[in-house]
Amino acid sequence: MTPSDSQPFWLQVPVDAPYLVTSRFNDPRNYPNNPTKKQLHEGLDLNAVDAAGRPVAVFAAQRGVVDRVDNFPPGYGQYIRIRHAWPDGSVFVTWYGHLSEMHVKKGDFVAAGQRIGVSGNTGNSFGIHLHLTVQHLGHGLPDYVVDDVIDPEPLIRFGAPPAVNECAFLEDVTVPDGTILRPGQAFPKTWRVRNAGTNAWTSGFVLAFFDGERLDGPAQQPLPALQPGETGTVTVNLKAPTRAGRYRSAWKPRAPEAAFFEFELFTEIVVASQQ
Fold this sequence. Notes:
Blueprint: E1 11-12, E2 21-23, E3 44-47, E4 57-59, E5 64-72, E6 77-85, E7 91-97, E8 101-102, E9 109-110, E10 115-118, E11 129-136, E12 149-150, E13 156-157, E14 167-172, E15 179-181, E16 186-195, E17 206-212, E18 220-222, E19 231-239, E20 245-254, E21 265-271
């Protein structure tokens, strides 16, 4: 997939409690288990108790895929880590620490605002709260307890999350990129995708030709009917050109109102010379 322009990465408030910061990014810290690292807070601590002082639900701050569910008693205690592949090509990671309960598993896709656990006081913690760390891989600050960190607070938005149409590429089911084909050979190209947005794919959601060589394909193909978070496949029937060379065909999902999604899907084939 090739990314295109998109809105900047953002976070929603990840706790079911009034927004209250109890410790900010870069506050002084004493990390005796990591003496070579900066003794600065690598994330944001948020109030995570209700009016009676009880732990509250913790939500995914942005859509993404859970890539770690673990326990580290000297530090974050029970924690969840979510990886966010953003349409502009950036990759962000959010960490949710000191949890008392964890309700997701590695590999789960989660929507922004989906409940993933319950706040707690596990690990190196002094009172019930949520610790939130955010990484911008390859672009954040080094030498903290976690590398590539950024300040989460400027990323937080309040109010209802915006609606978004997004298609996440999972794998090439048929004809991997670089496949060698005979001149004029017909082939079905199938991608496995996830509805990574907030809107269901219903009637009128299509995969449309966007750029490159059309390869005798249709102008558009209906997308599978998928609810947010569900996965499925979409196939277009294509045909290799008769002349030898390397060809690229790009396709983009499109909503009924004719607005293209951020991501494109593509296939790259090599047409062999005639013998």
